[in-house]
Amino acid sequence: MTKEELMKKAIELSKENVANGGGPFGAVIATKEGEIIATGVNRVTSSNDPTAHAEVNAIRAAAARLGTFNLAGNVIYTSCEPCPMCLGAIYWARLDKIYYGNTKEDAKHIGFDDSFIYDELALDAADRKLPSESLLSNEAIAAFQKWTATENKIEY
Ligand SMILES: [Zn+2]
């Protein structure tokens, strides 16, 4: 499939998901040659899962299908520019490229505003609206020491 056909698929998924009572977001993960590996739609409300964005669901399905956590060599087509969570997930999945339809500004106009998260990320932790505090770091470090000392670990 061409990149336009793959984006049309992501858009079609986003429209179908609205018809099914979900959010207007769909995603497709495909090889660079244009073969679909997996798709995903937004299931935040239907599954009561705030992380069930289309891109995350597509990544989970693609990784399960390929039997690997590393999706390098593949690309994602998403009906909307990824939110910070999905962008992070796309980096972790090692996908090679993002194609998106709607922009995050388009999403903001219909009530899906993730720009505040992008704004928060640019701030020092102490200046964010979400407080975070280091606690028991002297105990937490034990797992890192154990990891470092482990010889046959699967690095990612
Ligand atoms: Zn997202």
TrEMBL record:
InterPro entries on file: APOBEC/CMP_deaminase_Zn-bd (IPR016192), CMP_dCMP_dom (IPR002125), Cytidine_deaminase-like (IPR016193)
UniProt GO MF annotations: guanosine deaminase activity; zinc ion binding
Keyword check for Metal-binding: yes
Keyword terms: Hydrolase, Metal-binding, Zinc
Keyword Membrane included in the entry's annotation: no
PANTHER family for the chain: CMP_DCMP-TYPE DEAMINASE DOMAIN-CONTAINING PROTEIN (PTHR11079:SF161), CYTOSINE DEAMINASE FAMILY MEMBER (PTHR11079)
Family to which the UniProt record says this protein belongs: Belongs to the cytidine and deoxycytidylate deaminase family.
The name this protein goes by in its record: Nucleoside deaminase
Organism from which the protein derives: Bacteroides pyogenes
Organism placement in taxonomy: Bacteria, Pseudomonadati, Bacteroidota, Bacteroidia, Bacteroidales
